[in-house]
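Summary of Year 1 activities. Much of the first year was spent building the evaluation harness for sequence design. The harness presents a backbone, in tokenized form, and records the residue chosen at every position. We chose the following record to illustrate the format because it has been used consistently in internal testing since the harness was completed.
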């Protein structure tokens, strides 16, 4: 980054947000991509758009006390970062994981601004969460935590103000408990959360949306470069919501998924991972991925973080941030991988991205490639507003056309600013421009 103006903006962010490396990483990546645009648009500098964009509109931190099954009081910390509402109500998921602290929530909220803008739907950017770990907790404990979390958060959210959703550790069970508590507190049945159960306002295809959307985006990127999923070997990290449905769609499009993981280790099945077995282990039994060997003894299980050593054509990181480091990226290249598309948020370190770009790999950045989840949440909001439900096929078809349009926007923005094929720069520029124009039009606020 050469622009002194951008370096000054970044220096202020670093000074204001000490000890938050993930947030600084996300801001740095976006500012770097915006350099050619900022040179061409002095009016955006004049309007202070960037200085405002990197400072959240509102940050809420609160105590979440709850009682465990032994009658003991436990205390977690809750967060909601309402980052930007220039183009619509705040929108973004809730992450429940012990690693959660304010820097993680800020990085995710910042990314969400551009992602939501790319979807073409009217949604601002936000993120929330807690350092609560649902793993190993009983349903009763999870319910009491969720009720306590919403007992504070309810006053800050609403169908036309801020609409939270799921993320790591927050699936249908948690959203159900949160929705129930919200309804009880405000005495209104509104679309305040997305990812709801189908019997109380959820959208068909929302569960599948992020994974399916990732494959639709990847399919477009492959097609634009004369390739397809057909007969390709795919490796997917994670075995949660995004990973599961990425596997399902990639397989439907003709690929073979040979490896998946969880936070303990990964499985390698050269015959193709049996997704029904993964769903049973992760969605029903809530167990560890190594259980796969009980029903598939010819597969391999490896403890630890080694999944990127498995040779593949296409890599789909769908677990967590900074999952692919420089050495992993180099290993992927060495083993013939030519395409990385991100289902998780910021799963590749800046050094890994440098390796992808230096080796002319097709690289689909998270804020574009995984935007299908929030896009379908936007469709859930629309259905709630009109009190109507579309069929699975209708939602899936809308999702598919949104992902095609996201790829086209990234491609076009990259070409316009002289970075053809750099879909990361294209995503940052296209996502930013819409928000920036809205912020400028709304004056200094
Ligand atoms: P889930 O909780 O359903 O699954 C997360 C998966 O990642 C699990 O397999 C989990 O393993 C693994 N994982 C989590 N943390 C770590 C870690 N520190 N190291 C290694 N593995 C880890 O979450 P989702 O599938 O919903 O989310 C996955 C990613 O996709 C996240 O980055 C999320 O922000 C992003 N995303 C999700 C969307 C959605 O609609 N769900 C939308 C857009 C992005 P284990 O079971 O051992 O914890």
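For this record, the design step produced the sequence shown next.
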């Amino acid at each position: 980054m050469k622009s002194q103006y951008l370096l000054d903006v970044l220096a202020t962010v670093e000074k204001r947000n000490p000890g938050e490396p993930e947030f600084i990483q996300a801001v740095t990546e976006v500012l770097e991509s915006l350099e050619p645009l900022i040179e061409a648009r002095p009016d955006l500098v004049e309007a202070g758009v960037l200085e405002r964009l990197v400072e959240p509109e509102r940050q809420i931190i609160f105590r979440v006390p709850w009682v465990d099954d032994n009658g003991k009081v436990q205390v977690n910390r809750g967060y909601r970062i309402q980052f930007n509402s220039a183009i619509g109500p705040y929108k973004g998921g809730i992450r429940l994981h012990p690693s959660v602290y304010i820097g993680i929530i800020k990085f995710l909220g910042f990314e969400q601004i551009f992602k939501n803008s790319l979807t073409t739907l009217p949604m601002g950017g936000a993120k929330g969460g807690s350092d609560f770990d649902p793993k190993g907790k009983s349903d009763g404990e999870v319910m009491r935590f969720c009720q306590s979390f919403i007992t504070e958060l309810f006053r800050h959210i609403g169908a036309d103000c801020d609409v939270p959703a799921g993320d790591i550790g927050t699936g249908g069970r948690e959203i159900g408990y949160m929705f129930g508590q919200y309804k009880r507190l405000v005495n209104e049945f509104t679309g305040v959360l997305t990812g709801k159960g189908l019997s109380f306002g959820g959208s068909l295809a929302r569960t599948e949306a992020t994974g399916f959307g990732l494959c639709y985006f990847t399919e477009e990127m492959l097609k634009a470069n004369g390739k397809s999923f057909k007969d390709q070997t795919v490796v997917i990290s994670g075995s949660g919501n995004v990973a599961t449905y990425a596997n399902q769609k990639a397989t439907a499009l003709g690929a073979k998924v040979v490896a998946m993981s969880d936070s303990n280790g990964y499985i390698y099945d050269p015959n193709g991972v049996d997704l029904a077995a993964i769903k049973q282990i992760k969605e029903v039994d809530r167990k560890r991925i190594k259980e796969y060997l009980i029903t598939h003894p010819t597969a391999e299980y490896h403890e630890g973080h080694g999944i990127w050593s498995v040779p593949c054509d296409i890599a789909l990181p769908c677990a967590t941030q900074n999952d692919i480091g420089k050495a992993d990226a180099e290993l992927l290249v060495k083993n013939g991988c030519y395409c990385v598309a991100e289902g998780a948020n910021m799963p590749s370190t800046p050094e890994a991205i440098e390796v992808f770009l230096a080796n002319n790999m097709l690289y689909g950045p998270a804020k574009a490639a995984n935007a299908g989840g929030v896009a379908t949440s936007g469709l859930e909001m629309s259905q709630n507003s009109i009190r109507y439900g579309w069929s699975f096929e209708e939602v899936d078809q809308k999702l598919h056309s949104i992902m095609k349009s996201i790829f086209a926007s990234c491609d076009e923005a990259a070409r316009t600013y002289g970075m053809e094929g750099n879909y990361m720069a294209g995503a940052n520029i296209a996502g930013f421009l819409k928000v920036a124009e809205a912020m400028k039009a709304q004056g200094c606020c």
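The chain has 17 helices and twelve strands. Quantitative recovery figures across the full test set are reported in Table 2.
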